[in-house]
Specification:
Blueprint: E1 6-9, E2 20-26, H1 34-38, E3 50-52, E4 58-64, E5 67-75, E6 80-85, H2 89-94, H3 96-99, H4 114-122, H5 135-143, H6 149-163, E7 165-166, E8 175-176, H7 180-184, H8 188-193, H9 198-209, H10 211-216, H11 222-229, H12 237-247, H13 261-270, H14 277-284, H15 291-301
Antiparallel strand pairs: 1-2, 2-6, 3-4, 4-5, 5-6, 7-8
Amino acid sequence: MSGRFAPRPSPAPSGGPATPALTRLWTPPAPIDLSLVLTPLRRGPADPTYRATADGAHWRASRTPEGPGTLRITGGPGAVEAQAWGPGAAWLLEGLPALLGAADDPDAFVPRHRIVALARHRRPGLRLTRTGLVLETLIPTILEQKVTTDEAYRAWRRLVRTYGEAAPGPTPGLRVMPDARTWALVPSWEWHRAGVDDKRAATILRAVRAARRLEEAAAMEPGPAMARLELIPGIGPWTATETVQRSHGAPDAVTVGDLHLPGIVGYALAGDRDADDAAMLDLLAPYAGQRHRAARLIMLSGRVPPRRAPKMRRVDIGRL
């Protein structure tokens, strides 16, 4: 089923009444691993917009161009079933193949290192997701600027739980992130309580004021899309790249300016845990056009340098 979606009762939570849902069955052109494909969209284990349940389902709450929607995806490597609720249900189901990597071409990738070849062999279901949505990735990525991952995840949870709205459908607790106007109205003390400094808060406020123009970037090629994002003061190459990796499924959008990635790539490919961005880009040069995929496979290989004490001091500004 490609462009038409069938209504069907959805599973009811805790014995409650069934909620009408749209459904779609989709057969991937090659086996996929739902967890590998979708995990980059999850901002920590308690992300209020994402849930993976014991039955193997992946739930996402999104703010689509048609309005809020909830998507539930289940299935094995060769067949996928999705259910969707809310005003954005049809939009989410239409974008299901792209979300699960249908536009991605893993056959364009040629491993140049044994460790990368092994990682690819062991993870044949890896595909690069494409959400077609910019702000839902851009805002949590801005929250991750210059802080620890835990701090960023905590801020995202607090802000979405406080200012988001209940997601359509049968999953209690799932939230849709705020719309642009609501983000713009978050008072300064709430950013502070969430642990977000003035610089990151101001960047988010500038981004949501340009929300329409930024969402238009979803229809652009990754390079021009990144250039448009970087027109917003406070959004640099790191933030733009991390965004288009998810919104566009960009196989060559390798992250520069990251605290850990150069050392991971350097250690895996050359035994150099102190590699910088320039050294990382040199090592990834044989993968031109597919550098992001190469970096993901390196991360999945398990060959990472021994941990050192964190270089970034954690500061809880919400308690200052």
